[in-house]
Design brief:
The protein is an alpha/beta fold and 458 residues long. It has one domain: 3-Layer(aba) Sandwich (Alkaline Phosphatase, subunit A), CATH 3.40.720. The chain is 35% helix and 17% strand. It contains 10 helices and 18 strands. A hairpin with a 3-residue loop joins β16 and β17. α4 packs parallel to α7 and α5 packs across α7.
Length: 458
Amino acid sequence: MATRPNFVLITVDSLRADRLGCYGYRRSTSPRLDQFASHAILFRNAFANGPNTPHAFPAIMAARSALASTQLGLFDVPATLAEHLQDAGYRTVAFNAANPYVSKSFKYDRGFDEFQDYMDYEIDKNDFGMQPAGELVASPGLPLEHYIVSEESVRQKAELEKQINQDVLLSIRDLAHDSFFLWVHYMDSHFPYVPQADAQMQVNNRVIPKVENLHLNQRVRENGAISPETLNKLNLLYDATVRQVDQKVDTLLRALKMNGVYDNSLILFTADHGEEFHEHGDLQHKSKFFDELLHVPFLLKLPGQRNREQRSDLVSHLQLAPTLLSACGIGHSFRHGNFLTENSGKMIFAAASYGPDNGTPVDRNMFRIDRMPKRYCLRSLNWKVIVDDHSAVLLNLMEDPAERQNKARENPVRLRELSLALSDLRAYLERAALGSRIGGVLKTLSQRTTTGWAADER
């Protein structure tokens, strides 16, 4: 049996912190996670560094802002959490429930001995404006433009949600005699909201019929005006997806216990970002920086931990990888601090590029985000500033927790103070992105020198 601590990272897509009982939610969405929190560290003020998956996950897996590169993904990050653990002799295994943004196509398999992303539909790189043409990029099993609006696509999503835990449980049995790093990414609470009937009954005491469910999810995709009744039903569906993933996480944790590796494991549960339900005019998770998108659950159980602890200091995903490694004495190259030893009250930084209507960049723009407009956010416990090329929003979080009132004109000194701090971070990202661009050019020239020019001469 392994004596070194194991690492288990559980991430859930689009899961708001305020929809869990341990964060104060009254509906019974998370009884098992609440029980897990009773012998873990609960961070009340944990935040994502981006409002959607492609902008949030580089911080989780590589302690790096997505905007430090010219393309979304882990293409040119210096190192990843998995690579550091692999170098330290850990077996590294990952399961991603078919989110394309954290698939092999975006290099999230870096450092993993085994990586399952359930991606079985491929498209030509040239469709994304990438080279070389003819090289394929993995996508979900249905063409993206038709995904999640038909009965068949909903059925496939439900089947995958069942399949992933079956595969994870088999993997845990195999890993039990090694020191391992296991990452599992669940998609239950990501749109479309298609919870099973038992989860709906447990949370809402009712089941929304299949045809009505499809209609509701279509309204989410359209992102137009909806009635209060429709919004309420969408919240009911979403809450049931939270209950569904709560059950899955419990099954995973039970498997760790049955195989004798739970006590010796460092287990971290979090979400990549939250979800909006018209708090600021939209549905899902666009490139915006309000707390319904940035405030995430963050539960950490250390090896051998038995007691509950709560922390109120600010932490972010940028600190996740260095904290996990430092907690067990594993060296790393990450520059961000260890939130287990630092209670510094530092500010949290977030950044994202955005396309039309604040949406996540798609198609070729995913691979040239240096050309896209950017938005930045900096927050303390009491204040938040959000800036882009057109506006600056200053929010007093103590007086206005719903984040409705722009205080920029009333507090020019506070705005200037936070904006100056933000400008330093923007400058750092711009330098890093420039380095990424230069590196990409040099790599292309090198490939052209060894292959393309020789072919031309022939």
